Amino acid sequence: MSMRKLALYGALLLLTVAAPFLFPAYQTQLATLWLMIIVALTWDMTGGQMGYNSLGNIFFYGTGMYVGAVITITLYFPLAEYTDASRSETFTFTPEMYFTGMVLGTLGAGLFCALSAYAIGPLFFGLRGPYFAIGTLGLAIAAGEIVSNIDILGGGQGISMPVYGGDFEVFKKIIYYVFAAMGVVLIVFLSWFYQTRFGKAINAIRDDEEKAEAMGIHTLRYKLVTWAISAFFVGMAGSISAFQLIHFEPLETAYQTINLGIFMVVCVLLGGKGTLWGPVIGAILFHVFKEVTWNYLLGWQWVALGALIVVIVVFFQDGLMGWLRHRKPEWFGIRVESREARASA
């Protein structure tokens, strides 16, 4: 790695650490930005790198919320009593109980989602193209409806998470750094993962699955493992979001197919599918766009979002990274000979 790249990555890491102190009024928005980066990168693992466009990754996000909440609560209190809407008892979490529950709940959520993805994967990977997308969307919608009818999980009213007992400003910094650490780990992991033989194999599945199978690649195994890794990170992100939101409910918050379920796809399309930094850049640009329109164009924000999607589809079909690669190939290490050089050759 060149010194220039090392300096750039060092500066970005320093900015990540200093961001809550540089912009103290926007700590929640910065934490949400890292959430968008995480879900965009995980969606691109299957949608961009493997060619299986999912509309149901929000299933793992919502499931991670509930698994994290259930583990945190049941470590210390009966779940049925805690989620009973008519209860009069107050359940208090000490700082040690709170952070123990957060750590174990988040890890448990990631593992549960990964195992779930591996278990249900054979059913959904029998579908191709739009059928896979619609099938996974149906999974997320069905999960939200099912959970909203389970009383022990709070039903349609959802679950109230334990409240951090310390300074709320400190709490916002904690949530930001947890999301940021998870995002940095994911970026580092994927930068290595895509260069491995496994990464090349899922690219082969994207390019031509039949030829990949003919070459001896066990495509189903690669698809299951990739989806499981993606679900692991999304599930952990969902668990941390539960602590950040304090209260969440199934349809509008956990399994929000219309909002976050669509946003993660738009982030990848904006930045560029099948690249490492495309989803990151797309998530940053989309999050800024969303915050501006949701604050200054309230009532018209969905119109603005629809217009953005149309612009992406019409003018940037390969995303910003693809557009830049075409316009400035030398930035990506691609050598392009001039017309004069080709003519003389």
Average pLDDT:
90
Strand order of the largest sheet: 1-2
**Structure annotation, total helices:** 16
Strand content: under 5%
What structural class do the secondary elements suggest?
mainly alpha
Largest sheet: 2 strands, antiparallel
Count of DSSP strands: 2
- What is the CATH topology classification name? ABC transporter involved in vitamin B12 uptake, BtuC
Short description:
It comes from Meinhardsimonia xiamenensis. This protein has 345 residues and is mostly helical.
Give me the secondary-structure topology.
Layout: H1 3-22, H2 27-47, H3 58-74, H4 79-83, H5 95-124, H6 130-147, E1 159-160, H7 168-193, H8 197-207, H9 209-214, H10 219-245, E2 247-248, H11 250-254, H12 260-271, H13 277-296, H14 301-315, H15 319-327, H16 339-344
Antiparallel strand pairs: 1-2
Helix pairs in contact: 2-7, 2-10, 2-12, 2-13, 3-5, 3-6, 3-10, 5-10, 7-10, 8-10, 12-13, 12-15
